[in-house]
Design goal:
It is a single chain. This protein has one domain: (Glycosyl)asparaginase (Glutamine Phosphoribosylpyrophosphate, subunit 1, domain 1, 4-Layer Sandwich). Helix content is 38%, strand content 23%. It is built from 9 helices and 12 strands. A hairpin with a 4-residue loop joins strand 11 and strand 12. Helix 2 packs antiparallel against helix 3 and helix 8 packs across helix 9. The longest helix is centred in the N-terminal third of the chain and has 23 residues. The structure holds aspartic acid (ASP). The site of aspartic acid has 15 residues, from strand 8.
């Protein structure tokens, strides 16, 4: 009898070793990675960014705490950031070489692996809502340009005049980049969340890179590159030099390392951002939440705007 109970206890310990308690909810937000240092960001801008990240985090946390879905939290958080001129998404989107705005967004649900994305959008106020419409109202995953806008508008997305996206700051940025003949600007927004039902969701929205040409599309609307969610592993949203994130399928690679190699979310994010991307010269970062609510925020740039919260009461907002 004694032997039996000892064996039984060992068995329980063995089974328990692979499991861990799941938090009730968890959320992480990013507002882009890049040269985010006090040298480039004034104290006034830093406090405006911090306040907006904080507002978005509070909104997402409230939804999750009251039993709302991770999908609703991700969309609402990203809409707040899209409506602000502070980030490179929605209202604050950067200009392409032709002086136009071409916005991209994507969303993914970890329980079903359903996903939706839009690219080359010039007249939808909240591209993340358009991405959700593609996911929920169509049999497709990715729609572009006028077709995407028309479809989203038919399902209730708000249309704006292209002048809505004009901000002097971004316009001046474009003039400088044209002069120097460079293409850059990170500042994409994203959100990943785990809800009380154990469902993960990820969303990403961007204006892309300043001075981009030829209909260039980055990683943000590409499922598996800039955005991914799978209830068996984690939810990921990326920001950075999109071409690298597409070639290294960054978001899916993090999930795959967790599923097949059994890395933790932090180990997987570090492996991809610092080792694989770092070696290749790809700059940027990711935010992740795993199926237990553990978080990872890794970047190989000078900084990444970020905020996080969970049901244990952890909460943080960081500009630098
Ligand atoms: N990843 C985006 C792109 O390449 C840019 C960014 O994250 O800011 O379009």
């Amino acid at each position: 009898m004694k032997n039996f109970s000892v064996t039984f206890l060992f068995l329980l310990a063995f089974l328990g070793a692979g499991c861990q308690d799941r938090l009730e909810y968890s959320i992480v937000i990013h507002g882009g990675a890049g040269n985010i240092t006090p040298e480039y960001i004034s104290p006034e801008s830093a406090s405006a960014i911090e306040a907006k990240l904080s507002e978005a985090l509070d909104r997402g946390t409230r939804i999750l705490a009251s039993g709302g879905s991770s999908l609703d939290a991700v969309v609402d958080v990203i809409r707040i950031m899209e409506d602000s001129p502070l980030f490179n998404a929605g209202k604050g989107a950067v200009f392409n070489h032709a002086g136009k705005n071409e916005l991209d967004a994507s969303i993914m649900e970890g329980s079903t692996l359903n996903a939706g994305a839009v690219t080359g959008i010039g007249d939808i106020k909240n591209p993340i809502t358009a991405a959700r419409i593609v996911m929920e109202k169509s049999p497709h995953v990715l729609m572009m340009g006028a077709g995407a806008s028309g479809f989203a508008a038919r399902h209730g997305a708000e249309i704006v005049d292209s002048g809505y996206f004009f901000t002097e700051r971004r316009w001046n940025d474009l003039q400088k980049k044209i002069q120097k003949d460079t293409v850059e600007k990170y500042g994409t927004v994203g959100c990943v969340a785990l809800d009380r039902n154990g469902n993960l969701a990820a969303g990403t929205s961007t204006g892309g890179m300043t001075n981009k040409r030829f209909g260039r599309i980055g990683d943000s609307p590409i499922i598996g590159a800039g955005n991914y969610a799978n209830n068996n592993s984690c939810a990921v949203s990326a920001t950075g030099h999109g071409e690298f994130f597409i070639r290294y399928t960054v978001a899916h690679d993090i999930s795959a390392l967790m599923q097949y190699k059994k890395l933790t979310v932090v180990e997987a994010a570090r492996e991809v951002i610092h080792k694989k991307l770092g070696k290749a010269g790809g700059k940027g970062g990711v935010i992740c939440v795993d199926k237990y609510g553990n978080m990872a925020m890794e970047f190989n740039t000078a900084g990444m705007l970020r905020a996080w919260g969970n049901s244990k009461g952890d909460r943080g907002v960081r500009v630098f």
